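Sample intake sheet
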Amino acid sequence: MKADITPQEYEAFKKFLQDACGILLGDNKQYLVKSRLRRILEENSLNSLGELLERLQRTGRAGLREVVIDAMTTNETLWFRDNHPFRILQEKLLPEFAERNSLQPLRIWSAACSTGQEPYSVAMVVDEFRRTRPGKLRDVKITATDISKSVLEVARRGEYEMIAIGRGLSPERQKHFFTPSANGGWQIRPQIKSMVEFKELNLLDRYMLGKFDIIMCRNVLIYFSADLKKDILTRLHGALNPG
Protein backbone atom coordinates (compact mmCIF):
# COMPACT_ATOMS: atom_id res chain seq x y z
CA MET A 1 0.00 0.00 0.00
CA LYS A 2 1.80 3.05 -1.27
CA ALA A 3 -0.50 5.74 0.12
CA ASP A 4 -1.43 6.29 3.76
CA ILE A 5 -5.01 5.51 4.70
CA THR A 6 -7.12 8.67 4.89
CA PRO A 7 -9.78 9.05 7.60
CA GLN A 8 -12.48 8.88 4.92
CA GLU A 9 -11.09 5.66 3.46
CA TYR A 10 -10.81 4.08 6.90
CA GLU A 11 -14.42 4.90 7.79
CA ALA A 12 -15.62 3.56 4.44
CA PHE A 13 -13.67 0.34 4.92
CA LYS A 14 -14.99 -0.07 8.46
CA LYS A 15 -18.54 0.13 7.07
CA PHE A 16 -17.74 -2.34 4.28
CA LEU A 17 -16.33 -4.87 6.75
CA GLN A 18 -19.19 -4.54 9.22
CA ASP A 19 -21.81 -4.89 6.49
CA ALA A 20 -20.00 -7.86 4.95
CA CYS A 21 -19.27 -9.97 8.01
CA GLY A 22 -20.19 -8.04 11.16
CA ILE A 23 -16.66 -7.25 12.31
CA LEU A 24 -16.48 -3.86 14.01
CA LEU A 25 -13.04 -2.32 13.57
CA GLY A 26 -12.05 0.01 16.37
CA ASP A 27 -10.45 3.39 15.95
CA ASN A 28 -6.78 3.61 15.04
CA LYS A 29 -6.56 0.13 13.49
CA GLN A 30 -5.13 1.47 10.23
CA TYR A 31 -1.89 -0.45 10.85
CA LEU A 32 -3.84 -3.71 10.98
CA VAL A 33 -5.68 -2.94 7.75
CA LYS A 34 -2.43 -2.04 5.98
CA SER A 35 -0.64 -5.20 7.11
CA ARG A 36 -3.56 -7.50 6.25
CA LEU A 37 -4.31 -5.96 2.84
CA ARG A 38 -0.83 -5.10 1.56
CA ARG A 39 -0.43 -8.26 -0.50
CA ILE A 40 -3.93 -7.95 -1.99
CA LEU A 41 -3.27 -4.40 -3.16
CA GLU A 42 0.05 -5.41 -4.69
CA GLU A 43 -1.46 -8.37 -6.52
CA ASN A 44 -4.25 -6.19 -7.95
CA SER A 45 -1.95 -3.23 -8.81
CA LEU A 46 -3.79 -0.91 -6.43
CA ASN A 47 -2.09 2.00 -4.70
CA SER A 48 -4.51 2.87 -1.91
CA LEU A 49 -7.36 1.60 0.21
CA GLY A 50 -9.62 3.99 -1.69
CA GLU A 51 -8.79 2.25 -4.98
CA LEU A 52 -9.56 -1.11 -3.38
CA LEU A 53 -12.93 0.14 -2.16
CA GLU A 54 -13.77 1.41 -5.64
CA ARG A 55 -12.87 -1.98 -7.11
CA LEU A 56 -15.02 -3.76 -4.52
CA GLN A 57 -18.05 -1.66 -5.48
CA ARG A 58 -17.97 -2.86 -9.08
CA THR A 59 -20.18 -5.74 -10.13
CA GLY A 60 -18.58 -9.14 -10.62
CA ARG A 61 -16.05 -8.63 -7.82
CA ALA A 62 -17.28 -11.35 -5.47
CA GLY A 63 -13.91 -13.11 -5.61
CA LEU A 64 -12.02 -10.01 -4.50
CA ARG A 65 -14.58 -9.42 -1.76
CA GLU A 66 -14.01 -12.93 -0.41
CA VAL A 67 -10.24 -12.48 -0.46
CA VAL A 68 -10.50 -9.21 1.50
CA ILE A 69 -12.83 -10.78 4.08
CA ASP A 70 -10.45 -13.75 4.36
CA ALA A 71 -7.53 -11.43 5.05
CA MET A 72 -9.39 -9.49 7.74
CA THR A 73 -10.95 -12.47 9.54
CA THR A 74 -8.11 -15.00 9.64
CA ASN A 75 -6.66 -15.30 13.16
CA GLU A 76 -4.32 -17.57 15.08
CA THR A 77 -5.98 -20.34 17.04
CA LEU A 78 -4.94 -23.07 19.46
CA TRP A 79 -5.81 -26.64 20.32
CA PHE A 80 -7.96 -26.89 23.45
CA ARG A 81 -8.01 -23.11 23.75
CA ASP A 82 -9.09 -22.00 27.24
CA ASN A 83 -9.24 -25.63 28.35
CA HIS A 84 -12.29 -25.14 30.64
CA PRO A 85 -14.99 -25.68 27.95
CA PHE A 86 -13.37 -28.95 26.90
CA ARG A 87 -13.17 -30.11 30.50
CA ILE A 88 -16.90 -29.36 30.91
CA LEU A 89 -17.57 -31.32 27.72
CA GLN A 90 -15.58 -34.31 28.94
CA GLU A 91 -16.65 -34.37 32.59
CA LYS A 92 -20.27 -33.19 32.42
CA LEU A 93 -21.89 -32.95 28.99
CA LEU A 94 -20.72 -36.17 27.36
CA PRO A 95 -21.58 -38.31 30.42
CA GLU A 96 -25.06 -36.74 30.50
CA PHE A 97 -25.66 -37.41 26.82
CA ALA A 98 -24.32 -40.95 27.16
CA GLU A 99 -26.86 -41.74 29.88
CA ARG A 100 -29.81 -40.63 27.73
CA ASN A 101 -29.46 -43.65 25.42
CA SER A 102 -31.03 -41.69 22.58
CA LEU A 103 -31.11 -43.12 19.07
CA GLN A 104 -30.42 -39.68 17.63
CA PRO A 105 -26.81 -38.59 17.02
CA LEU A 106 -25.24 -36.04 19.33
CA ARG A 107 -24.84 -32.90 17.19
CA ILE A 108 -22.16 -30.32 18.03
CA TRP A 109 -21.58 -27.05 16.18
CA SER A 110 -18.24 -25.23 16.24
CA ALA A 111 -19.01 -21.74 14.90
CA ALA A 112 -16.15 -19.65 13.47
CA CYS A 113 -13.89 -22.70 13.55
CA SER A 114 -10.90 -21.13 11.77
CA THR A 115 -8.33 -23.74 10.68
CA GLY A 116 -10.06 -26.55 12.57
CA GLN A 117 -8.33 -26.72 15.92
CA GLU A 118 -11.53 -26.29 17.95
CA PRO A 119 -13.72 -28.92 16.24
CA TYR A 120 -10.86 -31.40 16.05
CA SER A 121 -10.20 -30.79 19.77
CA VAL A 122 -13.87 -31.61 20.41
CA ALA A 123 -13.51 -34.79 18.36
CA MET A 124 -10.45 -35.77 20.41
CA VAL A 125 -12.43 -35.35 23.63
CA VAL A 126 -15.19 -37.55 22.19
CA ASP A 127 -12.65 -40.19 21.18
CA GLU A 128 -11.03 -40.16 24.63
CA PHE A 129 -14.43 -40.46 26.31
CA ARG A 130 -15.34 -43.43 24.15
CA ARG A 131 -12.10 -45.19 25.04
CA THR A 132 -12.82 -44.83 28.77
CA ARG A 133 -16.52 -45.75 28.43
CA PRO A 134 -16.82 -47.98 25.35
CA GLY A 135 -20.29 -48.37 23.88
CA LYS A 136 -21.79 -45.62 26.03
CA LEU A 137 -21.84 -42.70 23.60
CA ARG A 138 -24.07 -42.72 20.52
CA ASP A 139 -23.10 -41.40 17.10
CA VAL A 140 -21.51 -37.94 17.25
CA LYS A 141 -21.65 -35.47 14.36
CA ILE A 142 -19.58 -32.27 14.57
CA THR A 143 -20.39 -29.42 12.17
CA ALA A 144 -17.72 -26.73 11.90
CA THR A 145 -18.32 -23.45 10.07
CA ASP A 146 -16.37 -20.37 9.10
CA ILE A 147 -16.76 -17.44 6.71
CA SER A 148 -13.26 -17.90 5.30
CA LYS A 149 -12.70 -20.30 2.41
CA SER A 150 -8.94 -20.35 2.97
CA VAL A 151 -9.09 -21.48 6.61
CA LEU A 152 -11.70 -24.10 5.74
CA GLU A 153 -9.34 -25.55 3.13
CA VAL A 154 -6.68 -25.94 5.83
CA ALA A 155 -9.20 -27.46 8.23
CA ARG A 156 -10.49 -29.97 5.69
CA ARG A 157 -6.97 -31.14 4.88
CA GLY A 158 -6.28 -31.72 8.56
CA GLU A 159 -2.55 -31.31 8.04
CA TYR A 160 -0.50 -28.99 10.26
CA GLU A 161 3.10 -27.94 10.76
CA MET A 162 4.87 -29.01 13.94
CA ILE A 163 4.76 -25.49 15.37
CA ALA A 164 0.96 -25.50 15.05
CA ILE A 165 0.67 -28.95 16.61
CA GLY A 166 2.60 -27.73 19.65
CA ARG A 167 0.12 -24.95 20.43
CA GLY A 168 -2.07 -26.54 23.06
CA LEU A 169 -1.54 -30.26 22.42
CA SER A 170 0.24 -32.49 24.90
CA PRO A 171 2.92 -34.86 23.54
CA GLU A 172 0.57 -37.76 24.31
CA ARG A 173 -2.22 -36.30 22.18
CA GLN A 174 0.20 -35.40 19.41
CA LYS A 175 1.34 -39.02 19.25
CA HIS A 176 -2.13 -40.53 19.51
CA PHE A 177 -4.06 -38.30 17.11
CA PHE A 178 -1.51 -37.47 14.38
CA THR A 179 0.74 -39.26 11.92
CA PRO A 180 3.66 -37.79 9.95
CA SER A 181 2.64 -36.63 6.47
CA ALA A 182 4.58 -36.84 3.21
CA ASN A 183 4.91 -33.04 3.18
CA GLY A 184 6.82 -32.94 6.45
CA GLY A 185 3.79 -31.91 8.49
CA TRP A 186 1.42 -33.85 10.72
CA GLN A 187 -1.86 -35.37 9.52
CA ILE A 188 -4.81 -35.81 11.84
CA ARG A 189 -5.91 -39.43 12.09
CA PRO A 190 -8.98 -40.61 10.13
CA GLN A 191 -11.08 -41.48 13.18
CA ILE A 192 -10.91 -37.82 14.28
CA LYS A 193 -11.19 -36.28 10.83
CA SER A 194 -14.26 -38.33 9.93
CA MET A 195 -16.22 -36.91 12.86
CA VAL A 196 -16.10 -33.33 11.54
CA GLU A 197 -17.91 -31.79 8.57
CA PHE A 198 -16.76 -28.31 7.51
CA LYS A 199 -19.09 -25.78 5.88
CA GLU A 200 -18.78 -22.17 4.79
CA LEU A 201 -21.11 -19.92 6.80
CA ASN A 202 -21.39 -16.21 7.59
CA LEU A 203 -22.84 -15.79 11.08
CA LEU A 204 -24.84 -12.83 9.76
CA ASP A 205 -26.76 -15.13 7.40
CA ARG A 206 -29.59 -17.54 8.15
CA TYR A 207 -28.57 -20.79 9.80
CA MET A 208 -29.83 -23.73 7.72
CA LEU A 209 -27.97 -26.38 9.66
CA GLY A 210 -30.72 -27.94 11.75
CA LYS A 211 -30.75 -28.30 15.53
CA PHE A 212 -27.76 -28.95 17.77
CA ASP A 213 -27.21 -30.31 21.27
CA ILE A 214 -24.05 -28.24 21.88
CA ILE A 215 -22.91 -25.01 20.20
CA MET A 216 -19.44 -23.53 20.67
CA CYS A 217 -19.21 -19.90 19.56
CA ARG A 218 -16.47 -18.16 21.42
CA ASN A 219 -13.78 -15.63 20.52
CA VAL A 220 -15.45 -14.41 17.32
CA LEU A 221 -18.06 -12.48 19.31
CA ILE A 222 -15.49 -9.97 20.55
CA TYR A 223 -15.34 -8.47 17.05
CA PHE A 224 -19.06 -7.63 16.87
CA SER A 225 -21.13 -4.72 18.14
CA ALA A 226 -23.34 -5.23 21.20
CA ASP A 227 -26.52 -5.32 19.09
CA LEU A 228 -25.04 -7.83 16.67
CA LYS A 229 -23.80 -10.03 19.52
CA LYS A 230 -27.33 -10.11 20.93
CA ASP A 231 -28.80 -10.99 17.53
CA ILE A 232 -26.29 -13.78 16.89
CA LEU A 233 -26.66 -15.25 20.37
CA THR A 234 -30.46 -15.19 20.05
CA ARG A 235 -30.29 -17.10 16.77
CA LEU A 236 -27.72 -19.55 18.14
CA HIS A 237 -30.06 -20.21 21.06
CA GLY A 238 -32.81 -20.93 18.54
CA ALA A 239 -30.58 -23.56 16.93
CA LEU A 240 -30.23 -25.52 20.18
CA ASN A 241 -32.30 -28.58 20.97
CA PRO A 242 -34.38 -28.13 24.15
CA GLY A 243 -32.81 -29.48 27.33
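Comment: The longest strand covers residues 140-146. The domain at 7-73 is CATH 1.10.155.10 (Chemotaxis Receptor Methyltransferase Cher; domain 1).
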